[in-house]
Amino acid sequence: IGAAIVIISGGIDLAPGAVIALTTVVTGYLFVNLGVPLWLSALAGVGVGVAAGLTTSALVVRARLPPFIATLGIMGILRGAAFIVTEARFYDLSAKLPRDWHVLGVSIDWLGPIVMVALAIGFQRLMTGYQWGRSVCAVGGNETAALFSGIPVNRIKTSAYVLSGVLAAISGIVLAVVQGQGKADLASGYELDIIASAVVGGASLVGGRGSVAGAVLGALIFGVLRDALPQ
């Protein structure tokens, strides 16, 4: 969802996979090694996404680096940091989580789909029913026209990258809890899958067109094809 919003705003984000990996590592390190409560460890994981989004937006908006180069560099830094922290090992969260664990009465197996649907509904509404969503499309469609229309282009771009980082971090937390481990090589290769899912869902790589619902549908189609074809 976050990467699709970035694409609609006229950018590109190659870092979500690395953010997911580092989030699982940070959450696992705090929860397993330091004994920090899971909710606080997860909050620190979200902080990883915020930091990644702010850093990326600074490079794109302030330093004027091409989004591909900026996010590619951030991806390498985050993935390298995850390997440094884990020292090529992994953190076993499942050993400290209770069996048949439920979150707010919901089985842990359903956590991922519920979070995805809830975020998709929320951000689809945000993109279609509020000024911010229309501003994202306007910036992606024609940045100069958006600027002369009074839209704070830099602020919109920054919000898109920060949201992408936060949503990737939330995905990492869900992945760490469901799989019960924090590893530096999780979500490897997700970068192209994420972009392909957004494009299949109707997003334009030149920006200005696309939807959250389409990105989610594209991810589902892409996931089914990827899992079914080998069989």
Features:
231 residues, single chain, 4 strands, 70% helix, two-stranded antiparallel sheet, mainly alpha, two-stranded antiparallel ribbon
In words, what does this structure look like?
- With 231 residues, the chain is mainly α.
- The chain is 70% helix and 4% strand.
- It is built from ten helices and four strands, in the order ααααβββααααβαα.
- The chain has helices at residues 2-8, 16-33, 38-62, 67-86, 111-129, 131-141, 143-148, 153-179, 190-200, 212-228, and strands spanning 90-92, 102-103, 106-107, 181-183.
- A two-stranded antiparallel ribbon has the order 1-4. The protein has a two-stranded antiparallel ribbon with strand order 2-3.
- Strand 2 and strand 3 (106-107) form a beta hairpin.
- Helix 2 (16-33) runs antiparallel to helix 3, helix 3 runs antiparallel to helix 4 (67-86) and helix 9 (190-200) crosses helix 10 (212-228).
- The protein is globular, with a radius of gyration of 18 Å.
- The relative contact order is 0.23.
- The mean pLDDT is 90.
